[in-house]
Design a protein that fits this description.
Length: 476
């Protein structure tokens, strides 16, 4: 593309639920790299920020720019608490997503994505990206459209095969209907379900074509990258090539699952990405997972990559969304070399391996909880005997999961990541007698955080960029 913007060497990872928040993305983008906001559960993040008082007013200022003022007015009436929540007061919830949602529910999702991207892009001309999980299908189309209304520059998606997203971006840039297949377990042969989003139902007076963001799928194999480049229903602009040391959800090992003596999945030669094959595709790519160092950047460039995607170092910076308690706890333990990472095979209800940060062999600040499913972003959709769709999660109460046709063995060891990741950013739901505990996810690079800290107990995003690019460390 002759009009393609200059691509950065460093992509900041799209981590967790609002760990990669607008402050972090803005700091990275202002420094000339690609800042990324996480779009996962961004609608719940928005309404919880409002219920916590939006002290600096940034959220409400961005909401004023949303092209549907009646939606902004409704959300403020229903969720904004000028003084914040009272001690022990539970957050007011949004309805959980289904295949078909009310226009207002979709508009709240659009608003949330618009606000996050708007805040991330404010005050600079750098590039801002949006990260989504392919697996979390139901909110993705309205989330993408809301981000496009705010001028998002790049969309990054992993945790699945996002082959239909390029075409959806093309359609929504023209304010046309976007459709993609909806994954429903147990559908009768020949039957297909779809998710559909019509921008004109929400934005009927839209006239000017939106900027179509670049699309970078996150892949773990050159073969998948080749498939997406050739068979997607629209243009793919590059790839993030993620290894099994990256944080969050990982692709499972290729071939039969083998576990180590500690019960972690064993990755082997088949999981090493073929760099020659990546270069042959002819699109820019960035290496992720264990690449967060000057040596990692040098290696990436030497094998033909545009650069690297870095998550872990940015995750514990002052601008990132982790709660102060989690940031202090992990950074302090890392300085004493007490942090490790465990790849849990069963923790995530998605079935993907999931990285959990550990201190002295125990999950960071995690405590037992009562099984509750009230956010529902990771629920699976299942065809039921009556011909409808049932929504279930292996981390929900066991009796409910079994009643919906699930196997009881599927619930063993499953954790509610939706509530746990909200707790990581200081927005844990208040229950009777306790607050939802966090599950902190990090890439394996957290074990080397001490090498980067150099005696500091805090740092900023600009320090990470300076370190990775080998310029003098600067704290602003």
């Amino acid at each position: 593309m002759s009009d393609r913007p200059r691509l950065p060497q460093i992509i900041q990872g799209g981590m967790g639920i609002a760990v990669s928040n607008w402050r972090l993305a803005r700091a990275v983008a202002s420094a000339g790299q690609l800042g990324v906001v996480s779009g996962t559960a961004i609608d719940s993040v928005l309404v919880r920020r409002l219920q916590d008082g939006d002290e600096c007013g940034s959220v409400r200022r961005a909401m004023e720019r949303f092209p549907l003022p009646e939606v902004t007015a409704y959300v403020l009436r229903r969720f904004f608490k000028p003084e914040g929540r009272a001690p022990g007061e539970a957050y007011r919830m949004l309805p959980m997503y289904r295949q078909t949602m009310s226009p207002l529910r979709q508009q709240i999702t659009m608003l949330a994505a618009f606000v996050e991207v708007t805040m991330a892009k404010d005050g600079h001309d750098g590039m801002v990206g949006l990260n989504l999980l392919t697996k979390v299908q139901m909110p993705n189309l309205p989330t993408l459209y809301g981000a496009m209304l705010a001028g998002v520059n790049v969309v990054l998606m992993g945790a699945g095969i996002p082959r239909e997203i390029p075409g959806a971006l093309d359609a929504m840039a023209r304010h046309e209907v976007a459709t993609m297949k909806f994954d429903v377990e147990g559908l009768p042969s020949g039957q297909t379900e779809y998710l559909s989003f019509d921008p004109r139902k929400h934005n009927p007076t839209a006239a000017q074509t939106l900027e179509r963001p670049l699309f970078f799928p996150i892949v773990s194999a050159a073969s998948l990258a080749q498939t997406l480049a050739r068979k997607s229903n629209g243009r793919v602009d590059g790839f993030v090539v993620e290894g099994p040391t990256a944080g969050g959800h990982n692709a499972p090992p290729r071939g039969p699952l083998r576990l180590s003596e500690t019960g972690e999945p064993v990755y082997g030669e088949r999981d090493v990405v073929d760099m020659a094959a990546m270069r042959e595709i002819g699109l820019p790519f960035w290496l992720a997972g264990g690449a967060g160092s000057p040596e990692g950047l040098d290696h990436a460039v030497s094998v033909g990559a545009q650069g690297i995607q870095v998550g872990t170092l940015f995750a514990y910076s002052e601008e990132a969304g982790f709660s102060p308690e989690i940031r202090r706890t992990v950074v302090s333990a890392a300085a004493e070399d007490r942090v490790t990472v465990r790849t849990e095979v069963r923790a995530s209800p998605t079935g993907y391996p999931f990285k959990v940060a550990m201190i002295d062999g125990l999950p960071v600040l995690h405590q037992p909880r009562t099984r509750v499913c009230d956010l529902g972003y990771l629920r699976s959709s299942v065809h039921n005997p009556e011909g409808g769709i049932t929504y279930r999660c292996a981390a929900e109460p066991v009796d409910q999961y079994v009643k919906k046709g699930g196997a009881i063995e599927d619930t063993e060891g499953r954790q509610c990541l939706c509530n746990a990741l909200m707790s990581c950013i200081g927005m844990g739901q208040e229950r009777e007698g306790y607050v939802e505990p966090p599950i902190v996810t990090s890439g394996d690079d957290v074990r080397f955080l001490n090498r980067f800290l150099q005696g500091r107990d805090s740092y900023r995003a600009t320090d990470v960029i300076a370190y990775l690019t080998r310029s003098a460390l600067v704290t602003v």
